[in-house]
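Full entry
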Amino acid sequence: MFRLLQRRIYGCTCNEESLVEYKDDEELLGVRCRECCSEWLDETFITDSNDRKCFKDYNGTKLYFHKHNVEQEPAACDAPVSRKQICEGEMGSLSSGDHIMWHRSKGGIDYYHHAIVQGVNVKDAEINVIHYQKPDYNGLVQEDKIPFTETYDLFKIIYSTLKDTTKLILARARSFLGEKGYGIFTNNCESLAKFCITGVRYSVQVQWLREKGKEIAVFILAKSSFAALTEGTKAAISEAIEHMMHATDNVGLLLFSGLEGCFVLRDSYNILNSFLDGKSTGYVCIYDIVNRFTEAGSGITLAYWMGLFGQFVGTSVGGPLCGWLGSAIMTALGALIGKKLGRLIVYNLERVCRLCITKHNKAN
């Protein structure tokens, strides 16, 4: 716990205890910090003269700090330049140190699993890989012999830049063997394979999910904002007319119901036209119209009672103006919640009806 707190406050200390060796047989190629994945490599793997300025003495061997600058070298964090599909009979094109991926499906979710090739047995149609497996929730980096028949939609990732030597790639991969700590967003199979190839941890799939998540969030926010604005406008107009007329709450309810009724008729007209144009079935048409009317009914009902509550609270706190504002806000909120409840009611009623019809048909 202390070391975790220390890393968060001061950054990783990369002490001797956290270093893992990269070895090719008995030759030391470098070391990696298990905590932050910083690495120090033998001079033969250092291409940037600036990296030679920072080094450490590791058991009598001078190792140089190796760091890819992601901003200057965006290719390290971009999607690979190309990928080549490996079909049956093309296993010979794979070699040690290659980054491969193949299609998997778990729990109804499709994704690509990534691994580093350690060897290929063309005769037995097996690929020896190092990858993340999940025997438990922590995951485990291990060696496996994967039959070619299990690698559906297999691709070889081709890097045009920043790919290190095969010797270093395999040494990196082997240094992870037995390690746990799988994380779908921070330490997954793709980020492991990409680190072994380039020295940079990055997952294209996770980045894609993040971007899509942002798009979905913006869409939901925009749609919710539009719905809130629509309901708020209807509520504000109704409340304003009611106050100008010095009328009762029932008049406001009637005005709000009239405005909502206009929207219901418009939507029903569009639904009916969609059916007449052959874009939907009769069943869908009836369901959507019933759903829209139920939405309106539950929305108006909840809007009325929540509007009264908002008016009472607003008037108690700040007088008539706050009462009008509170009534308008709570009416709009009630309409939004009521419509959601209306949809839920219709959905569950439809399911019950389907179940009853199915049971009736089976009984006969």
Summary: The mean pLDDT is 76. The radius of gyration is 32 Å. Residues 2-66 form one domain.
